[in-house]
């Protein structure tokens, strides 16, 4: 499995069914239904990823149906806010759309003497969005790099600034590509920089947005725009462009089976980090919230929010980390 990318084994146990509006992912029937524990109440805080913000909110609503006396606070300003919040103890849940960096793990370990525990909660196809009226059919990773980065580490032959350079004709040909992206606090910003730009530098003209929704909104209202965001923020006004790993590869859509197979080049896990001391139980609130995320009900929430659920095999592996 490539670092940060999806293992081909993910497809096991997952069903795709056709629903109105396209392919709708169904949860693995092998996932366990959630059973409430007794005596769970109190306050719990989640600080971290904007990509996971809606998902954390939906999980919290589901959690409150089981535990009406639990109070859950959620703040989603970016994945880089999760490690300091876990280290300081101001949050028990640290949602991140990328894996923690080595330096972040080191800072946590320096304080606690052990590493934070990552929980794989769901799968995302990090999408490159264009306006719904845009006719572009496919982009290679090298083209994406040449559009968003001034470094061009994928080796594309030229800097790409207009739609005509991507083969569009007529009114599109001479139009500049208006670029939208996330700010540096974002895990999506970091993941896209690492995988799409090979850690090259973003162009200065990328309009940095504080949240995923505002990237997609920018693309929706700006006919000549392009932006990147988690697939869970897709709207009717924007379209995810199929992506090819290279000019020798075919295009792969930002859909569940392409993410599970590893064919979609920007597939990734979405994590929630917790502070679990070796040999010690998690506090009941954090443990039950994690159990809920990994349950059948929790994964149904993943589908509802537009992301892709994990199979029962991975849910079991993640449960073993926290129980």
| Backbone structural class | alpha/beta
- Order of helical and strand elements: EEEHEHEHEEEHEHEHEEEHEHHH
- Indicate the percent of residues in helices: 25-40%
Instruction: Describe the oligomeric state of these chains in a short phrase.
Output: single chain
Q: How many β-strand runs?
A: 14
Reported for the largest beta sheet, the result is:
5 strands, mixed
What portion of residues belong to β-strands? 15-25%
Strand ordering within the main sheet? 10-9-11-7-12
Mean pLDDT across the residues is 93
- The termini sit apart by 25 Å
* Poorly predicted parts: 8-23
Dominant shape: elongated
Radius of gyration: 20 Å
Number of helices: 10
What does this structure look like?
The chain has helices at 53-66, 82-88, 102-112, 141-148, 187-195, 212-221, 256-261, 284-293, 296-304, 312-322; strands spanning 15-19, 22-26, 42-47, 70-75, 94-96, 117-125, 127-131, 139-140, 178-182, 207-209, 225-229, 238-240, 243-244, 267-274. The chain has 323 residues and is α/β, with parallel strands linked by helices. The strands form five sheets. The chain has a five-stranded mixed beta sheet with strand order 10-9-11-7-12. A three-stranded antiparallel beta sheet has the order 5-14-6. A hairpin with a 2-residue loop joins strand 1 and strand 2. Helix 2 runs parallel beside helix 3 (102-112). The longest helix is centred in the first third of the chain and has 14 residues, at 53-66.
């Amino acid at each position: 499995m490539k670092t940060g990318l999806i293992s081909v084994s993910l497809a096991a146990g997952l069903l795709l069914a056709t629903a109105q509006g396209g392919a709708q992912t169904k949860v693995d029937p092998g996932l366990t239904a959630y059973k409430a524990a007794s005596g769970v109440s109190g306050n719990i805080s989640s600080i971290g990823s904007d990509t996971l913000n809606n998902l954390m909110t939906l999980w919290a609503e589901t959690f409150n149906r089981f535990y009406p006396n639990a109070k859950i606070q959620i703040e989603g300003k970016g994945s880089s806010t999760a490690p300091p919040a876990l280290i300081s103890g101001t949050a028990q849940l640290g949602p991140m759309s990328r894996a923690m960096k080595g330096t972040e793990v080191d800072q946590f370990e320096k304080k606690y003497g052990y590493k934070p525990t990552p929980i794989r909660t769901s799968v995302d196809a990090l999408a490159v969005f264009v306006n719904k009226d845009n006719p572009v059919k496919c982009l290679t990773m090298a083209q994406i790099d040449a559009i968003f980065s001034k470094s061009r580490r994928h080796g594309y032959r030229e800097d790409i600034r207009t739609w005509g350079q991507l083969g569009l004709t007529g009114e599109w040909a001479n139009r500049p590509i208006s670029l939208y992206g996330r700010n540096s606090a974002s895990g999506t910003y970091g993941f896209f920089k690492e995988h799409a730009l090979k850690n090259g530098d973003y162009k200065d003209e990328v309009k940095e947005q504080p949240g995923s929704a505002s990237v997609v909104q920018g693309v929706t209202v700006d006919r000549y725009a392009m932006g990147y965001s988690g697939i869970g923020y897709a709207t009717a006004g924007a379209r995810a462009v199929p992506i090819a790993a290279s000019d020798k590869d075919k295009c792969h859509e930002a859909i569940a089976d392409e993410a599970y197979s590893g064919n979609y080049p920007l597939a990734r896990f979405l994590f929630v980090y917790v502070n679990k001391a070796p040999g010690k139980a998690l506090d009941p609130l954090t443990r039950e919230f994690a159990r809920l995320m990994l349950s059948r009900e929790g994964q149904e929430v993943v589908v509802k929010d537009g992301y892709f659920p994990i199979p029962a095999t991975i849910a079991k592996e993640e449960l073993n980390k926290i129980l």
